[in-house]
Amino acid sequence: MMILFVGVRLAKITDILADRTGLxxxxxxxxxxxxxxxxxxxxxxxxxxxxxxxxxxxxxxxGGIAAQTFFLALADIVHRRANLEHAAAxxxxxxxxxxxxxxxxxxxxxAELPEVTVLSVSPFSILLPVIYLFGVRLSSRDRDxxxxxxxxxxxxxxxxxxxxxxxxxxxxxxxxxxxxVSAIAFAGYVIAHSGAVIAEETGLGQSVVGALFTSTATSxxxxxxxxxxxxxxALQLAVGGIIGGNMFDVLFLTVSDIAYRDGSILHAVDTxxxxxxxxxxxxxxxxxxxxxxxxRHGFANIGFESALLMVIYAGAVAAMFxx
Length: 323
What we know:
The protein has 323 residues and is mainly α. The chain has one domain (2-146, 172-322): A middle domain of Talin 1, CATH 1.20.1420. Helices cover 75% and strands 0% of the residues.
């Protein structure tokens, strides 16, 4: 319940900060909303890795990416006017989706190569934040000076600053933002210990518990901060928050590798954990097609990509239990 309550407040504050700072909804969704709502997942994966639970740490990170992409399909259902990916057209979101695919491919590549570590940390883990920062910089440039513009239609939601945002104290906004992030971090710490106990007591294994239980629990802020902005009309913030959160979630692997002291965590997990990176790539690819194609009205006003995302995620969950 704490995560749900905090998520609603974070969405509202981030929307205001997007106007006050001039970042815009798509970039604010990536940097502020995406990173802050991922704090609980970061703490969960880090605590699990420090305790030697490598599969729980990695599957929590990668499983959360699939769950959060699935949340966009749910948000598309909420936005009744038109397909969400059509209405939230943004060059920055296209850039971020492409960078996310690259980020997800890195741990897969690392797992197939011989294990090399520096102070028990894989060089590929250090490469991930470099790619992330480069991607954020690219998406910011695409917002400020785009080289192309999406076709405007009556269903396209144009991002306009809310003049009422200027009435809020910047100091109070920042303090409230940090307090809410701290609350989410504490929830992540509790979830990490609960996940380890559940995996041991039920016999389901760390991969299943991490990918389906702890990742979903720590992803609840993303669900709330996706639905809430859609209802407020901040569509680019909603889409950018999910994609940006997914980009940040890959960085769980970096902090988890540092916390894991028995070598590279990317080489310590089984395929049931790393397979979620492949699922994330497929789901992000489908989302990217939807953002490019911009189908205006699909079945029940949701696009083909939303329908496919729901099918892929449901199939992945079923396959995980089967494995």
